[in-house]
Amino acid sequence: MRSLFPVTEETAAPERGAPGAWELDALADYYAYPESAGAEAGAEGVWLRGNMVATLDGAAQHEGRSQPISCPADMRIFGTLRGLADAVVVGAETVRQEGYRPPRAREAFAARRAAAGQGPAPAIAVVSASLNLDFSLPLFTSPLVPTVVLTGAQASAERARAAEKAGVDVVVAGDGRGVDPARAVRALGKRGLTRLLTEGGPRLLGQFVTAGVLDELCLTVSPMLAAGDAQRIAHGPAMTVPDRFVLVSVLEEDGFLFTRYRRT
Ligand SMILES: NC(=O)c1ccc[n+]([C@@H]2O[C@H](COP(=O)([O-])OP(=O)(O)OC[C@H]3O[C@@H](n4cnc5c(N)ncnc54)[C@H](OP(=O)(O)O)[C@@H]3O)[C@@H](O)[C@H]2O)c1
């Protein structure tokens, strides 16, 4: 892994760019959430970071999964971003398609998490209107930190009860069946979950983008061409005016670019 941007004396040093020089601890320092989240972050002191991977031609998945367009370094960064987060906010379709499991406590992040007052692993916060989720799965019945399900006020009461019976923290963050994305972020912030990471999918990320609540995007550019009709990383109604972000950093390994952009 080597740093391509910003170019400083330190990052340009060959030993820093040597493969393997970026252990998990170095990656965790590199991707640390803003220190003064309250001052720098958006509403309620929450910082919402997105982490997505896309091919050169913009495909966010291949045959329904992101794994075919990812690589080991991408998975290391994926794990690091999880290791830093209070909660991972994810759309129900990604949970269903990718077979989400409860995040495990990882030794590499244990001391850092304890010092930051975080639980042993991030909570998974699933966004779902239908609550059409299998609440008998370990994601819901046996996570280290209770899984949250964000839904609307008019979601099925029966399904909500099934979720609660499994141990899920059901949070209403919308007046209809669906969730208001900005309200969802605020609701998590009020629960003390302020270092947020969203892993999409594209339909959920698109709503965070149009609601103006995405603070940062970690986008892996995968050196692959997929063609086909796969979704882009953000899908749904368009912005009136595209939102401008600034480039913060770029890492490279094996032809993959690990970019990070922040809202201006
Ligand atoms: N490239 C990447 O980095 C990446 C990352 C993640 C996922 N993916 C891929 O993306 C695909 C899935 O993404 P997707 O865009 O189809 O789905 P998604 O965003 O993961 O989930 C969509 C579902 O989330 C729920 N949802 C979204 N917005 C909601 C709202 N405002 N209120 C209530 N519920 C809401 C709904 O669930 P209900 O149907 O339960 O109501 C909806 O069907 C998979 O193929 C996955 O592999 C790629």
Q: How is this structure best summarized?
A:
This protein is an alpha/beta fold and 264 residues long. It has helices at residues 9-12, 14-17, 24-30, 37-40, 72-84, 92-98, 107-115, 138-141, 157-165, 181-190, 202-210, and strands at 2-5, 47-55, 87-91, 123-127, 148-151, 169-172, 195-198, 216-222, 245-253, 256-263. It has a single domain (2-58, 65-263), classed as Dihydrofolate Reductase, subunit A (3-Layer(aba) Sandwich).
Describe the fold and architecture:
This protein is of the alpha/beta class and 264 residues long. It has a single domain, classed as Dihydrofolate Reductase, subunit A. The protein is built from eleven helices and ten strands. It has a ten-stranded mixed sheet, sandwiched between helices. The mean pLDDT is 93. Bound molecules: NADP nicotinamide-adenine-dinucleotide phosphate (NAP). The site of NADP nicotinamide-adenine-dinucleotide phosphate (NAP) has 31 residues, from strand 2, helix 6 and helix 11.
N→C terminal distance? 27 Å
Number of domains: 1
How would you classify the quaternary structure? single chain
Name the shape in a single word: globular
CATH superfamily: Dihydrofolate Reductase, subunit A
**Major beta sheet summary:** 10 strands, mixed
The overall pLDDT average reads 93
Which structural class do the helices and strands define? alpha/beta
Strand content: 15-25%
CATH architecture: 3-Layer(aba) Sandwich
Helix share bin:
25-40%
